Each structure stands twice: as structure tokens, then as C-alpha cells.
Amino acid sequence: MSVSTRRRRYAAVALATVAALATTTACGDDNEGGSSDGAKPEKLVVDTFGEAGYEDLVKQYEQQTGIKIELRKVAQLNEFRPRVVRSLATGKGAADVIMLEEGILNEFKLNPGNWVDLAPLVGDLSKDYLSWKYELGKAPDGRLMGLPTDVGGLGLCYRTDLFKDAGLPTGRDEVSALWPTWEKFIETGQKYKQATGKGFVDSVTTAVNAVLFQQNGGDLFYDKDDNLIADKSPAVKAAWDQAVAIADAGISAKITTWSPEWNAGFKQGTFAVNACPSWMLGIVESNSGPENAGKWDLAAVPGGAGNWGGSWLGVPTQSKHQAEAAKLAAFLTNTAGQVAAFKKSGPLPTNLKALEDPSFQSFTNKYFSDAPTGKIFGEGVQKIVPTHLGPKHQAVKENALEPALRAYESGQANAAKAWEQFTKDAATQGAF
Amino acid sequence: MSLSATTAPPSRGAPTKHTQPRRRRGYSRFTKLDMKYSPYLYVAPFFVLFGIFGLYPMLWTLWMSLHDWDLVGTHTFIGLENYSALLSDDYFWNAVRNTFGMFVLATVPQLALALFLANLLNRPMLRARTFFRMAIFVPNVVSVAAVAIVFGMLFQRDFGVVNWFLGIFGVDAIDWRREWWSSWIAISTMVDWRWTGYNTLILLAGMQAIPRDLYEAAAMDGAGPWRQFWTVTLPMLRPTFVFVVILSTIGGLQLFVEPLIFNNGNIMGGTQREFQTVQMYMFENSIHNLSRAGYGAAVAWALFLMIVVVSVLNFVITRRSVK
Amino acid sequence: MTTISTGSKRLWRTSPLTYIALILAVLSSIYPLYYMFVIATRRNDAINDTPPPFTPSSLFGDNINRALDNDTANLLQGIVNSVIVASVVTASVVLTGSLAGFAFAKLKFRGRNGLMLAVVATMMVPTQLGIIPLWGLMQDIGWYDSLLAVTVPFLASAFGVFMMRQYASSAVSDELIEAARIDGCSTWRIYWNVVLPALRPAAAVLGLLTFMQTWNEFVWPFAILSSDNPTLQVSLSTLSYAYYTDYSMVFAATAVGTVPLIVVFILFGRQIIGGIMEGAVKA
After folding, report:
1. Which residues of chain C are within 8 Å of residue B146 when distances are taken between CB atoms?
2. What is the domain count for chain B?
3. In what way does this protein cross or attach to the membrane (chain B) (predicted)?
4. Would B125 be classed as within a structural domain?
5. Looking at the domain assignment, is residue B2 inside a domain?
């Protein structure tokens, strides 16, 4: 508080000299006030996107420590990223703890100085997490930028009631058996479409994400040296072709993810299937509302395991309470924290003890027809092979790949034109 | 652009200013100083504020536009390269086309409707006049953000009120965000909803300043209401009309919030940028992609030049055609 | 004489068609607002009902409480901030506008016409032209996330100067000023005692228009303020982004943010409307 008033007074004085101020508007690292003073802070701010499942944990932490925690949520990663970038650029406005998704983490690794090295503050936790996940949290200069939260083990959410109406099986094992491959998935979708006349899957873009992240270990938009290879990456092309096949089959409801139609679609049953990395469960639940409890269930994704998304918690150097923020980050990602978050909203643990925790393994998600989500996702987690994502992965995916596919899906562009649009945009969006 | 452009309609019958010879008197030294310098003091606040927060950033934008400028990194001077890149940038021209398209689509019906409503409101025997005027003006009170959120829901594909209404007449559900024409219509509707009332009142004011005897004379010549509208109202309204057109132009070419919120905050405006405006393109290349700020600055200046050119053109054309 | 007046009466007769057209216009003006209000009083599902609901229900209190309870959006703080910012900006725009308008209309000084032309020309500058450097400037002087950033740059407006000049040139007579001068009044006293009272009606209109505009300002506050210290419009956008499904809450908050303006407008509407018309005629 006092700092901001001081700043304001300083600012008023500065106004007089503003006209003469021909200083650069570039925004170097602003480290002032970044020192951690050890005094107990009144409040810590946590920035998350989607549904991280931290609501109860944060209250618990407040009671334990007496520190007030403000949990800020943004629905879309695409909305979240520019805010974080901006606050880093201005040196102001960042939260004390920030959730960093794998698609944006690498962009922030370009300027590691913006992030506190957590290792000295929380001690050596490298044995606590999936080792590849822990290692990915390190910047090139070796500092630990983030503590692992979750991985995005893949599943498909489906509406049992709609499946029943369409004459399809409803049990999760039978449903999983319907689509060992994407081709079978399309066939099932066409049956559904014939029976109901409605879209089967929400959009091709969720499908393309699923396929994209099944390319375990392969390069996506960038190669290992961070060269942009979006236009010639086999993994991208494979995902693209699969998405095109789904669009051609006409089984998509053609709804843009995160749009009002998408939100409404969950409640109204505009589509029956939705790609569900574990963290999506909380979003499906909050979008569908309590009135649809027990109507969703979870099945295996066609074509094998994959990992879409997953995050880390980092502390920016502009935080005035770095040590306390690091403690909070450690609390949210420790065994109990990850199990609790999983139960609340679905993000799949990366903490090894959490993965072995009986209450995780035996957890059944009431909202999703008591699906044993702990078992389903937990089994796949050990098999995940990390995929290298380049610095602007998220921008390329959301601003180049997905719009081009949507254009194809809606018939605005033919396949060649849409691919052209993608590669052109990828070049702009992917430059760094 | 001359001063008379926007100050066009002189109030009729107002006394001509400054015709009196300046009286010379023996004022005190203080009074002389006061008279000489205080006017500058009085106009200073505007110019100081504009200088700092308007002109300085404007010139700085110009400077940035000559660089490859990364807001979080380095910048190198590249001369006019950003501008030449702009000329061959499809997305920029797409944004220009969208901006003008939506500007025309919004402004033409809006002004026609405003003219029509103003003409109705101008009937002297009209009852509940104040009520009508206020009710028509009300949308202008609502914030753009609120308008965009509400209309975003009205124009939903699956459960939107507009599609429901069209459905009554057997029209299939339209995916308003999908095609350029449908998105343009939806966005123009938002603009029109918010601004038609405002323009109606300004035009109405202009109409009320037209001397009644002109109409009576026309009526004596046997002109009916619509003929009178064409022969008396429109020509006399010209200066006000120019004013309204220029205001709409400046606003219309800066269209930003409506298309942004319409697409759920996505700066690209549609999967193929169907409704991305120049202003949005500028933001995409600055605040959203900080490393392209120099290019964004060039877009900003291009937009400014467009506004100047169009305003002048507007002024010339409107002045000549509405005679 | 009589023939003319009966003729003109017939001429100006208002047909039922006129009323029908006007009523249609009023309905389309009001409906989106009404729709917002109806949704704000219902459960969130109502947004997807077809046909849409046409009557309000009773849940407005619940919905608005949810919005107020939202820690991230800081709605109350947003309202308070908006009141502060809009009031300060309004007072200042009226003051600086009337001062400069008076100077341009009634005082003689070298460069007057050139400067007035400059004022008008600045109205053409798109507000967003300098937004990137301005944004940088604000962080340099430490105003990022400060109300100063959304207040100070707007303390004087070209439109205000322009409007007050137009009004002052006809509403204040030269003789009056000259007489005050002879009585020994300083320019400031003339402004304060003679000019400002005469400008009151126009000042009221300018004030209300400025208040509305500042209250509704979105792009710049959104770029420079965080949700920690928002104006109302920033709060609203936080609500609609963070809790994307809860439209009844978002609409309830939006209604709360709009109602004060509508009340002000209904109370002072005649004056605003009169003033806009006045300004336009003189413009």
C-alpha cells in the first residue's frame, strides 16, 4: 500500500518533467522493489487461467498463515498470456504467483530475468515431481522458473444421455471400445449425426489439439533448436489431416471454443463429445452447470495417450514478497495441494506422491457419472513423453492453426487455401 | 481542413462579431499585461495537456514507426520499411476494407434513419415530444462495452434472440461471426443502435433553426411535406449534415470495441479476419505482440492519414452534393 | 392570414404513421436494455431460452451479490473509482473548456485563430494514435495501474473548448465585458463573475456529456489499469472474461453500471437534449 502511494507522489512530481522526458518507452526489467524483505505480507495474489481448482486450497492457506490470498481467474489462455506479458513489460501489475502453461512457458524463458529462481527458496524438490516435468520448469540459465502443477492427460468427455438417445452405448468401457482409432471415432460420429441430426464433437479444433499432442516426443511447430518448422512438421501435418477428415465427415457442431455458443452448448447439448485433457473437467463442469450433473462421462481418446497442456507456478521478480510467494507456490503444488486441486477441478498431478496417493488413485468424479478419473488419468501419466514446444507455441496454435481450421470447417476456405493461411500466419505469429 | 468546416452552420441572425472598433483607453499597466497575456494562460491547459498526452505520444509513434521496435527488447532504425511492408500487407488492406465496409454499412442507414426520425420529430404538433427525443437518445448513454456484450448475446448463433426472431419468418439460424457480411451487419447494428439517436437530435436541432417562413412560402407554392423536405429542409440542413458526417467518420474509422467484444475479445476478428478493423490490427501488432510495436505504430499513422483524407473528402463531397 | 395558418396547420398535421414509426424507433432503442435487465433478474439459463424471456423475474439481488462478491472484478472499487475519475474529469473539462472558450471567443490575442484551428484539428486525431507510447510513458512515470493515468490526460478536451467557444461567442455580449473592464475587473474576474454565469447552461450540458463519456471509457482504462484498481468498465470486462458462463451476473453488474447514468439522464435529459441541440445549431 505505502509503496503505491509513494509512487503516486513521485509520479506527480514527475509530471512536471514529463514533457522533457525523451526517455525510451522500452521496458527493461524493473527490479526495483523486487527484493524480498522477509516481512510477512498482508496479501498475495495468484493469477490462474481456466479452472485450477485452487479455491479451497487458498482458503486453507489463509487460515494457516493469516496471509490473505487473492485468486484471480481468467477463462482463456489467449486472454491470459498478453496480460502476463504486459505486466512483465511494464514491471507492474503482475501477481505474486503466476500459472505458466507449457505453451507459454518457453516464451518467458527468453527473458528468465523476469522470474525468481525458486530452488534456493523452496529447497531441492526435484525428487518430488515427474523428472521431465521438473526439468522443463528450468530456464536455460539453470534457474527454476516454475514448480510443476499438472499435466494434461487426454480423455474424451461425452454425454451419456445424448448417446443413449442416439442408440449408442453409454458405459465408458464400451464407449472407449467404439473408437480405438480416429477413423472409428468418425464412424461413431456419423452414426450419432444420422440419429440426431446434431453435431457430435464441438469443433475440429479440440480434435486437432488432441491429435497434435498425441505426437509424443515429436516436434510440433518448432524443432529442438527452436527453428520454426510449422509448415513442414510431420506432426502438425498429421494433426491437420485428421482434423480435415473430421470436418469432412460433417460431425462437428462448428462451434468456436470459448465462445458464447460453446458455453451454451454444454448446457443445451449442442454437441455430445468434447476433448478432455484432465484440466478440462473443471471447465466442462462449470459450463454445464449443476443441472447436468451425472450426464457427462469420460472415455479414452482415440489413437492412444497424449498430453495437452499442463502448467507450472512461477514467481515474477517484480513480486514484493518473493519468499512468501515461493512458499505459496510450493504449497499449491505439494502432494496434498495437487490431490485437492485434482478433486476439485481435474488438473492431473505431477507430484509423484500425489500420483501414488490412495485418495487420488481411488477418486471417482461424481459430476462425471462417478468416472474413476484418478485411475483413468493416473495410468497414462507415467507413459507421457514430453514434447518440445517452441517459444511462441501458443500464439501459433491459437492464432494460426485454429483459425485456419475453423475457416476450413465452415467452408470459407478449401483445404489448400486454409493450409496456406495457416503457414502464412504461423510465420508471423511464430517469429520471436 | 479549415475552421469553417466544423464550425460550419453559423447561428442565423447572430450579430456579426468584432465589428466594433476597439476602444482605446488608459488602462493601468497591470490591466494591459493582464489583457495581453492572460488569454494565453486560459488556453494553455488544453495545449499543455494535449502536448504531453497527445502530441508527444503521436510524434513518438511516428518515431517508433521508423524502427523495428520491440516493446520488451531492442529497436533498430529501418527507415520507411514498415510503411512499405504495410503497402503489401494483405492483412492491413483487409483491415482497411473491413473498416470502410462497416463504416459505410453503419453510417449510411444510420444517417438516413436519423434524418427520417428527425424529420418526424420536427413536426410541431407532435405530442410527447420530449419523451420521444429522450427515448431515442437513451442508447447513447450506455457504454460501448455493455452494448457489445448484450448484442454479442443477441447475435448468438444457437440461442440468440435475433436468430429466434428471424426463425419466426422461416430464416435458418445465421452464424453471425462466420461470414464477413453477417458480422458486418451485426457490428453495424450495434453502432447504429448507439448513435442513431444522437445524430437524430443533432439533425433535429439543425432543422429547428430553419426559419418557418421558408416552409410557408414553399407551401404557398403548393409543395407537399416531402417536396418541402427535399427543397427546403435538406439544403438548409447542409452545414449540420456535414458536421454529423464528419463526426461519424472520425468515430467510424476508429471502430474497435464492438468487433473486439463481438468475437469474445479475440483481436483477430473472425477466423479469416472477416471483421478485423485497422484499429484492431494496430493493437494486434503492439499490445498483443509486443515485438511488432514498430509496425503497429506505422498502422496507427496510416489510420490517422486515412481519417484526415476521408474527413476532407467528406467535407468537399457533402458540401457539393447536398445543394 | 387565416388561409396561411390553416394551410400550415394542415401542412404540419401529424399522422398516425408518424407515431407508429416513432414508437417502433423507441422500442428498438429500449429493447436491448430491457433484455439486459430481464436476464439480470433471472437464472443464467434464461440467456439460452427460445423464445427469449420478456418479463423480469426476482433474482436481481442474487445476481448482483454474486458480482459484488467476486474478488477479482472489484466491482465496488470500480464504481467508486469511476465516480472519482468521472467527477474530476468533468469538473476540469468544464473549467478549462469555459476558460479557453471564453478566451477564444471574447479576448483578443495574437495567434488566436491559428490556435483555435489547432484545437479543432486535434479533434481529428484518433485517440488511439499515441496509445502505445502513452502506455510506455505511463509506466515510465509510474502511473501504470493508477487512476492518474485515466484522469490527467483527459482534464481538458478539444470538444469542450470548441463547444464553449461557440456558446460564449453568442451568449456573452461584448458590451458587458467591456463594461466590466472599465469597472476595473481583471480578466479573471470577468470570467468568474460575468462569463461563467452566462455559460452555465452550456457548461451543464458539457459536464453531463463529459461525465457520460468518461464513465463509459473502455479502451484506455482497459489497457492501463489492472483488475486490482479498475474503473467500472474494466470491472465489467473482468467479470465477463473470468466468469464467462454467468451472464445473469454480468448483465446485473452491467445494469448497475448503467442505471446511474440513465437516472442522471432522465433527471437532466431535457437539458442535455436541449444543450446538444443548442450546441449543434451553433456548431
Report:
1. 36, 236, 254, 257-258
2. 1
3. Multi-pass membrane protein
4. yes
5. no
Chain B contact for C122, CB < 8 A?
Answer: yes
Mean pLDDT of B267-296: 89
pLDDT digits (tens, 9 = 90+) for B190-212: 999 999 998 998 888 888 888 88
Asked whether residue B14 is assigned to any structural domain, the reply reads no
DSSP bridge partners of A69:
A44
Integer Cα distance of A399 and A422 in angstroms: 9
The domains of chain A, with CATH numbers, are 40-151+310-356 (3.40.190.10), 154-308+387-430 (3.40.190.10)
Residue A47, strand partner residues: A72, A98
Task: Indicate the DSSP class of residue A43.
Answer: E
Give pTM, 2 decimals. 0.83
- CA dist B167 → B142, B188, C27, C123 (Å): 28, 21, 20, 44
Contact between chains at B125 and C14 (C-beta distance less than 8 A): yes
Residues of C in contact with A286 (CB under 8 A): 245
Residue B13 has pLDDT above 50, yes or no: no
| B280 within a domain of the structure (yes/no) | yes
- Can you give the pLDDT at residue A9? 37
Which of B152, B157, B290 lies nearest to residue A85, judging by beta carbons?
B290
Residues 6+ positions from C9 with CB-CB distance below 8 Å: B125
Question: In which domain, by residue range, is B127 found?
Answer: 89-321
| pLDDT tens, residue by residue, C134-162 | 887 887 788 878 999 999 999 999 989 98
What pLDDT is recorded for position C144?
A: 79
**What residues contact residue B303 under an 8 Å CB cut-off, 6+ apart?**
B253, B254, B278, B279, B282, C126, C129
Q: Rounded to 5 degrees, what angle do the CA atoms C28, C46, B275 make?
A: 55
Q: Which CATH superfamily is domain C84-235 in?
A: MetI-like (1.10.3720.10)
In chain B, which residues have their Cβ closer than 8 Å to the Cβ of A89?
Answer: 71-72, 290
Chain B: closest CA distance from residue A261 (Å): 6
Chain C environment of B189 (Cβ under 8 Å): none
* Assembly ipTM: 0.84
Q: Is A5 on the interface with C (CB under 8 A)?
A: no
State the CATH number of the domain containing residue B214: 1.10.3720.10
